[in-house]
Design brief:
Rossmann fold, single chain, 342 residues, seven-stranded parallel sheet, 2 domains, 16 helices, Arc Repressor Mutant, subunit A, alpha/beta, globular
Length: 342
């Protein structure tokens, strides 16, 4: 680590070059084959610079370039994997993780370099890291709950099947939300179970049913069984949402949304809305994980990126100190800024 600090001080241009070439290899690895123009747009680097750097990486045997675009070589993949630790240390990520863990008072923080709002590869890396943590945490007979959304869909997408059969059950942590099937908790639970070699159960209850309709559905034996599994889950993997964003996704009235914001709501998780101190503002009518159950879980994996999620992360972190948080640089830096102000 001392050597890296010396390099940063005496030759900062080397650090900038390393960061650029690492970013190029990383993006090509995710998007291959990819042309110069698309890579330029993806990384927000001038196309001429991409051309020059890509030619250097080609000469080093790390990239192949043909009429289809750029592809990373086996050597390039090996170098990329080995560079990851060096790159995160150059960016000061380990120290940032420690500071954030202490400030939030939770079990662990993992920060992925980059901005998940701008770069798909950052969201992909968040998914990969989350999938590794899931595999390291699960045991036989575990019941794993998962929520819906784009971030959870990325987690399921990035899990690499290992052909290991596991005696586990994946269950949606709450009823369905939104019209996009790919980001529904049911779809994500099924994909996750398939890749982990486990079983899954679905929850055929949409969010926001009227009370009478909800009571009728809850008499169904299959739905009862799913609810029992949710009540007995021992691992939760979930995305943290902003209060206003989730209220809009649920098509709440402008008056209700304004009321929630006026009351200080900054976060939403599994149908509950919270202020920055973790105080519950309001509960949306939904079927699934209860707040008390969430607070009692020993294994909680939360995933959220983007500086706009900072308030939500701070809020939800107050509810369960067993949480493992996977986030990105902008969110981490914004949390530090907010905590400094407070």
């Amino acid at each position: 680590m001392e050597n890296l600090e010396l390099i940063k001080k005496i030759a900062p241009e080397i650090v900038k070059t390393l960061e650029m070439r690492y970013s190029i290899l990383r993006s090509v690895s995710y998007n291959q084959p990819i042309g110069r123009r698309m890579l330029s747009e993806d990384l927000r680097i001038k196309e001429r610079t991409i051309r020059d750097e890509a030619n250097i990486l080609k000469e080093q045997g790390l990239l192949n370039i043909d009429f289809m675009g750029m592809n990373i070589t086996e050597e390039g993949t090996r170098i990329l994997e080995n560079l990851q630790l060096v790159y995160t240390k150059l960016k000061g990520i380990p120290k940032l993780e420690e500071r954030l863990q202490d400030l939030l008072g939770i079990k662990k923080v993992v920060i992925v370099p980059g901005n998940s709002n701008y770069y798909g590869m950052v969201l992909g890396d968040m998914g990969k890291i989350t999938s590794r943590i899931i595999k390291s945490e699960i045991c036989e007979n575990d019941i794993i709950g998962i929520t819906g959304g784009n971030t959870m869909a990325a987690v399921a997408e990035e899990i690499v099947p290992d052909k290991v059969k596991r005696d586990i059950t994946i269950i949606p942590a709450r009823g369905g939300l939104g019209r996009n099937v790919e980001t529904q908790a049911n779809s994500i639970a099924a994909k996750l179970a398939d890749k982990l070699g486990g079983a899954y159960r679905l929850l055929y209850v949409p969010d926001g049913l009227e009370r009478d309709a909800l009571e009728i559905m809850l008499r169904n034996d299959e739905i009862k069984e799913s609810i029992d599994l949710i009540n007995n889950m021992n691992i939760l993997v979930f995305g943290l949402g902003r209060a206003d964003t989730m209220a809009n996704r649920r098509n709440l009235s402008p008056t209700k949304i304004e009321e929630l914001i006026d009351r200080g709501a900054v976060a939403e998780a599994f149908g509950h809305y919270f202020d920055i101190n973790g105080n519950e503002i309001w509960e949306y009518r939904t079927v699934g994980l209860s707040l008390d159950k969430f607070k009692s879980l020993n294994k909680v994996i939360g995933v959220a990126g983007g500086e706009e999620k900072a308030h939500a992360i701070i809020s939800i972190a107050t509810l369960n100190d067993n949480m493992i948080l996977i986030t990105d640089e902008p969110a981490a830096n914004k949390i530090l800024e907010i905590k400094a102000i407070k």
